[in-house]
Design goal:
Shape: extended
Largest sheet: 2 strands, parallel
Number of domains: 2
Structural class: mainly alpha
Number of helices: 8
CATH class of the largest domain: Alpha Beta
Oligomer: single chain
Helix content: 40-55%
CATH topology of the largest domain: Rossmann fold
Distance between the termini: 55 Å
């Protein structure tokens, strides 16, 4: 049975958090965990207590764990294809090979699934390709993506 967390609701409606949501840098800092001590203070806790739910980065994953993760994600992709269908002649996946597992890329190659890899174009760019406060593409990044798609379409006419 769902039980609302009234303390959290109260905290999120507080002036401090309303200000946070209207200032992009504060919003970003909050999402990546920089403002965690301030959140704890706002909840009348100790700002410097360690938290198990803190922002984690640089996970070290062994090969077996990575293989299991890849298998699970590929199985999920297969189930989505089974559920919704996937026309290989009309659909091409846009991906960044730097952030996509080799297992998924190999799966696509083995199953005739077309993809556009924009990683080389982004690596060669001298300008930033994403926004400052998050990882969405900026105007330059969108331009590079458009060029990559146009190049792919011209090659595959």
């Amino acid at each position: 049975v769902y039980e609302p967390n009234y303390d959290r609701v109260k905290m999120l409606r507080s002036t401090l958090f309303k200000i946070r949501d209207h200032i992009k840098l504060l919003s970003y800092g909050s999402k990546i965990g920089i403002l965690e001590p301030l959140k704890k203070l706002a909840q009348e806790g100790n700002a410097f207590d360690d938290t198990e739910k803190g922002y984690k980065t640089n996970e070290v994953i062994d090969v077996d764990e990575q293989r299991k993760r890849d298998e699970k994600r590929i199985a999920n992709f297969k189930s989505l294809v089974d559920l919704y269908g996937f026309d290989k002649d009309k659909t091409t996946i846009l991906l960044d090979a730097r952030k996509t597992s080799a297992a998924f890329i190999n799966y696509c190659l083995a199953n005739g699934i077309h993809f556009i890899d924009f990683s080389d174009r982004f690596k060669k760019s001298n300008k930033p390709t994403t926004l400052i406060y998050d990882h969405h593409w900026n105007a330059h990044g969108r331009e590079l993506i458009a060029e990559e798609i146009a190049s792919y379409l011209n090659k595959n006419r």
